[in-house]
Amino acid sequence: MQPTVNKAYPGAQGFSLLELLVTLLIFSILITIVIPSYRSFVAKNLQASEINSVVQHFRLARSLSIARETHHVVCPSGDGESCSPSSDWSQGFILYEDSNRNRARDGSEVMHGVHQPGHDVDIDIHASQGRSAVVYQGDGRPSGYNLTLTFCDPGNQVPPRAVIVNNVGRVRISETRWNGEPLNCSG
User: Which range marks the domain in which residue 147 is found?
Assistant: First the structure.
């Protein structure tokens, strides 16, 4: 498209009103298509980032427990220092060596990992059956039962996903609950 030449002002060039309106129409159509896709892209990447961090910490806890034959705890933590007695893991979590096996982090116990999500991260993470910690024993098995952490996007841009820890301590990522049922983000 070539700009029109204004005969009243030789050498001055510009665009007609029709050309500007067509350009604005094309721009608004592109924006309408791109913005929802971009939001979905960002939400999916934030969810994947949180999932990867959780999986990394569980695998590290299991590895440390086996290598050192000690207990290691992964638990939700809002302050990055101590465990929260909650099944809400959205505020962050910690990994520490529980040398005295009391399931509470004491000042002398070694901290191996702290994860606090950034301010722009809006992913809800909830544990199954109110489970507020995973304790890996010296053989790498978690004490207790299976754990499912459900990762939900409050904006519903992406479907929920889960991190499932089985009784042997292995971690997997799933789009369903451990028994194949759909994940539930409604609380």
Answer: 16-69+121-174
Alpha-carbon distance of 104 to 54, in angstroms, equals 20
Task: List, for residues 77-99, the tens digit of each pLDDT value.
Answer: 989 999 998 888 999 999 999 98
List strands edge to edge, sheet with 134-136: 111-115, 93-97, 72-76, 134-136
Output the domain CATH number for residue 150: 3.55.40.10
Nearest to 94 by CA among 78, 110, 108, 113: 113
Structural domain includes residue 101: no
Rounded to whole angstroms, the Cα distance separating 16 from 1 reads 11
Domain count, the chain: 1
Report pTM: 0.79
What's the Rg (C-alpha) of the chain?
A: 25
pLDDT tens sequence across 122-142:
788 888 776 788 999 999 899
